[in-house]
Automatic annotation (TrEMBL):
Methyltransferase domain location: 56-151
This protein's record includes keyword Heme: no
Enzyme class, broadest EC rank: transferase
UniProt protein name: Class I SAM-dependent methyltransferase
One annotated GO biological process: methylation
Originating organism: Tunturiibacter psychrotolerans
Keyword Cytoplasm among record annotations: no
EC code: 2.1.-.-
Keywords: Methyltransferase, S-adenosyl-L-methionine, Transferase
Length: 245
């Protein structure tokens, strides 16, 4: 993956709440939040498992929970976790090292603008990211751009503002109690949880070939597939137009 940068020690003072409270978020991820690995596997892989060499990106990976889970379960794939928080990336790298994972890497990056080439990634996992990013449509558009035709994206977003507010509120409180400059973080004080109609409209803002939406009590999910024929069709149209000229 060209253009990726290696995590460095964090800049001080941290600009991100996740950078400031990385240990607390990692605890929540490990012990509080639901593990969607089975749903991700069903959504992204055929029943006999992923093809060897499949490249998967986890955007806003935090402590690398899914990148590591998938790499551990499917040694034939390669996962890359991308996040803005260098402290969370360091935790993700330690997690992968503790499990001796050779097929899992992490990189600092902004989901609004990814270095990956267009049509280059087989699958993208995005869990609990859209409720806190500044421009969620721009992030979804980046995902669409980098996915190869036929590539899939799995999105999981919480549905309950109240439940989401508990860890976020704790992080704000902890940052106030620590020496960090509370109030100067890029994350909102309240998570921007989407309603079901907003989630559907948001997901459909990109021209997916197919979209499946699902809801349970606490999460809403989207499995989006980029039309396998998109590129071929456009090429055919261009050739047809050129023939007319
Ligand atoms: C709520 S956490 C979700 C972490 C993980 N995906 C999970 O399921 O627990 C959001 C993560 O997104 C990261 N993040 C926020 N804005 C980002 C951006 N623009 N690009 C990449 N990562 C971002 C944060 O640092 C944080 O680790």
């Amino acid at each position: 993956m060209s253009g990726r940068t290696v995590p460095h020690p964090p800049a001080h003072p941290p600009e991100s709440l996740f950078e400031s409270c990385s240990w607390f978020y990692s605890l929540c991820r490990e012990y509080l939040f639901r593990d969607h690995t089975p749903e991700i596997s069903r959504a992204l892989f055929p029943p006999d498992g992923p093809a060897p060499g499949m490249r998967i990106l986890e955007l806003g990976c935090g402590p690398g929970f899914y990148a590591c889970r998938l790499s551990e379960e499917y040694p034939q794939i390669h996962t890359t976790g991308v996040d803005l928080s260098r402290r969370l990336l360091a935790r993700a790298e330690s997690r992968a090292a503790r499990r001796s994972l050779q097929n899992c890497t992490f990189a600092h990056g902004d989901a609004h603008s990814l270095p990956d080439a267009s049509n280059s990634i087989d699958a993208v996992v995005v869990s609990r990211l859209f409720l806190i990013v500044a421009k969620r449509e721009a992030v979804l558009s980046e995902i669409f751009r980098i996915l190869r035709p036929g590539g899939r994206c799995f999105v999981a977003e919480p549905t309950s503002g109240f439940r989401t507010q508990i860890p976020l509120g704790c992080m704000w409180l902890l940052s106030k109690l620590s020496s960090s400059p509370a109030g100067k973080y890029r994350e909102p004080r309240q998570a921007d949880v989407m309603t079901a109609p907003d989630f559907s409209a948001f997901i459909h803002s990109q021209p997916w070939g197919s979209v499946e939406l699902q809801y349970d009590g606490w999460y809403q999910y989207a499995v989006c597939e980029k039309d396998p024929d998109t590129v071929a069709e456009r090429r055919t149209q261009i050739v047809a137009c050129e023939a007319l000229l």
